[in-house]
Amino acid sequence: MSGSDENAMLVLASTRRKQLQSLCLLAGALLFLSLAGCAQNPVTGDHDFVMLSEDSEIEQGRTNHPKIISQYGRYDDEALQAYVQTVGNHLAVVSHRENLVYRFTVLDSPVINAFALPGGYIYITRGLMSYLNSEAQLAAVLGHEIGHVTARHGIRQQSAAQAASIGYTVGAILFPELAGAPSQDLFNIFGGALLSGYGREHELESDRLGAEYLARAGYAPEAMMDVIRVLKDQEIFAAAQAKKQGRESQGYHGLFASHPDNDTRLQQVVAKADKYVGTHNGKTNRAEYLNQINGMTFGDSEEQGIRFDRHFYHLPMRFALTFPRGWHISNQPTSLQAVAFGGKAFIEIGVMDIDRKLSPQEFIEQRLKVSTLRAGRNLNSNSLKGHTGIFEDNGRLARIAVIFLNKQAFIFFAGVKDSNEFEWFDKEFLETATSLHHLRDDEVKLAKAKRIEIVTVGRQDSYTGWAASSHITNSPEMQLRLLNGQYPNGELILGQRAKRIQ
């Protein structure tokens, strides 16, 4: 390279550095200038950077609420829904944004979770409610989610993301050469760093606010720590089960699942609620809570289908099928999935209406747009017509099968992580597809949902005995201990009311 070339390269490098610096300064300036439109934080009184008004925040919740209900389903128990709304109202009226109309909804999902949309829309799953043991614990979960709403955590995160995006967009217009991948990566990092700092601080703030609202509403603030212990036990159990099945576990979304109950800072923020404790504080309402969840669905619902061992039964749609032994079955709102140990293979099953008179082979070609199949052949199992074949999906071998049952097409899609193992798993793929059949009379009872039953512990009762009759297929004794807050080694206490599964 000549001297002139070197000088030119140095000049170009210097120019690009200055432009990059200018771009970063521009992003900072955009953030700084936007502070003129900041909103006062209802909790702290400080001014936070937000790009949405309260009306827009409420509209977000109103718009997305039907989508949440569509995805998860609303639990069909109006008495329980009213109870949760009442408990939530006790907390909402002592919160920093009592002007909002809060809507508390129990979702028909076995997943252990609770979350909030902006504007006062708060959700808790029946799955999480199954493992709580008092009204105070329920209030702790709802109070934590109210804290996210009152402190406008969701809106602040959205605003930060929008600011980072605006900074990059404007910069790319002024400096087109910085619109390439390296600069985009820089701003992804910048935006990500800006947002990642929110997580722990926001969760801690919600724990502090939740404990404060508990105390102000007359509940024992230490219920916040009780809930954290419940969820930590659940996380430990789920992680152990996932490890045995060669998959990753997913815990509760917030700080509850990511920090132990002996976390010093967590204990400190919850302890700040002590100043709100008075003579009226300390209620737990264990008996009332247990009465409310008596008879509540546990695990899968009949509407979504019941997993039992390696079998799946669906009462409303009147079908059943069997998965390979040892596979992890996941019942999603729009599909049924199963994964082999270590994630080496998977099967996904969906359903579509048959709206035209097509053969299963024509259905694959015309409705699914899969025109090239290898080793295609018809299936005729359990008096059901179907068709199957092999094709390539992103360079990997996969099997597709369509089987007609009543007026619906059951679509089986199966694949492997390593194409060298396809032949090994393909037999199991076909066995799963051909196991589909009309629900038999002797299977109807297995398609019924399991329910929580509240009983008073007698002398003959034990977790071992309860587990044997529970129809829980996955570590029933451990799950019963989890349900009653006695994981991992606790035993039933004579005369105490406890949950069992029937």
Characterize the structure shown.
- This protein is α+β, with helices and mostly antiparallel strands.
- It folds into four domains: 74 residues; 192 residues, no CATH class; 138 residues, Mog1/PsbP, alpha/beta/alpha sandwich (Protein Transport Mog1p, Chain A, 3-Layer(aba) Sandwich), CATH 3.40.1000.10; 53 residues, Roll (Membrane-bound Lytic Murein Transglycosylase D, Chain A), CATH 3.10.350.
- Helices cover 44% and strands 20% of the residues.
- It contains 16 helices and 19 strands.
- The strands form five sheets. Strands 10-11-12-16-15-14-13 form a seven-stranded antiparallel beta sheet. It has a four-stranded antiparallel beta sheet with strand order 7-8-9-17.
- Strand 10 and strand 11 form a beta hairpin.
- Helix 1 runs antiparallel to helix 6, helix 5 crosses helix 8 and helix 8 runs parallel beside helix 11.
- The termini are far apart.
Task: Write the SSE topology.
Elements: H1 3-34, E1 39-40, E2 47-48, H2 54-72, H3 78-92, E3 103-107, E4 114-117, E5 121-125, H4 126-131, H5 135-150, H6 153-174, H7 181-196, H8 198-216, H9 223-244, H10 255-258, H11 264-271, H12 286-293, E6 297-298, E7 306-308, E8 311-314, E9 319-322, E10 328-331, E11 336-339, E12 345-353, H13 360-367, E13 374-381, E14 384-393, E15 396-405, E16 408-416, H14 422-434, E17 437-438, E18 450-456, H15 463-468, H16 476-483, E19 497-501
Parallel strand pairs: 3-5
Antiparallel strand pairs: 1-2, 4-5, 6-18, 7-8, 8-9, 9-17, 10-11, 11-12, 12-16, 13-14, 14-15, 15-16, 18-19
Helix pairs in contact: 1-6, 3-5, 5-8, 5-9, 6-7, 8-11
